[in-house]
Amino acid sequence: MESAGLSCGGDKISCEFFKVFLTNRGSTQLQIPRSFTKFFSGIPPCKVILVEHDGKHWDVKVEKIEGRLVFKSGWQEFSKEKNLEDCDFLVFEYDGKTTFNVKIFGKTGCRKVAAPPKVVPIVDLEEDSDEHSHEIQNNGVRKRPLPSPKTNVKSEGACPFKEAQRKSKRIKEGKDKMNDEKPALTKHVPLENAHFQICFDTPYKLKRVEFPRKLLKMNNIKLLRSITLRDENGKSWLVMINSSSNYDRSFLGSGWMAFKESKNIQVGSRCDFQFLVDKANVARELLVRVLSKIKKK
Known about the structure:
Elements: E1 2-9, E2 12-20, H1 23-26, E3 30-31, E4 47-51, E5 57-65, E6 68-71, H2 75-81, E7 89-94, E8 99-105, H3 125-133, E9 136-138, E10 141-143, H4 162-180, E11 195-199, H5 203-207, H6 213-219, E12 226-230, E13 236-243, E14 250-252, H7 256-262, E15 270-277, E16 283-292
Parallel strand pairs: 4-8, 12-16
Antiparallel strand pairs: 1-2, 2-7, 3-6, 4-5, 5-6, 7-8, 9-10, 11-15, 12-13, 13-14, 15-16
Pfam families: B3 (PF02362)
GO molecular function, one term: DNA binding
Region (Disordered): 127-156
């Protein structure tokens, strides 16, 4: 699934397209939408640079295969290193020269971010060496020797539980450190790319497409009385937005059935809906991609 478009922000013009990644078609090469080639000004670059949000970049060659431009040499390394999976959502922003900024979103609709390395607490082996040398392994159970009756309790370091207390404190501090340094939950997708998927597994879902309330709230997306649905070919349908009696739920109304029939969406189909919002966070369009559908007989 793919789409290309031109977006404007003040004096800045950016050319973008997005792809829904499928392993059987995109693991070794990735096709560039035909409609996007017009932004190359007639001469596509032989090599481009893919740049991720963390600044890391990959050199990828552009080749023409069976009349289509594709990311070829270097793309396989990129897809493997980014651990791309089926239905991952990729957005490519072209700078007009040789660079594409790439954003990757998973099935959950959230930005895919590499997990930071785990933090392991540091243990002072020298401090523990004397203590462990006195531990005795007996049938899988560690035992400590009883304190000697000749030990002077008032002398420094003579308390039989002092070492145990110090070790317990170190372990606790190590656990606290690990808890403090746990990676934060992945932030929700940016507004310009917020999207959701629906599997139409019942006839009821085909009639009532509801907007996820959590997604709208987290991204502060505002809905009007209508919205434009746009398919991968750029064709559009105006659809009304209905609300429940207490206005806590919103769903697609008049116009949805025409879109559904045109795209042959039936029970068993699965679609991806991507919001396009303006500067005021008002949803103007929904980019709809049919990820799987029933073939017409």
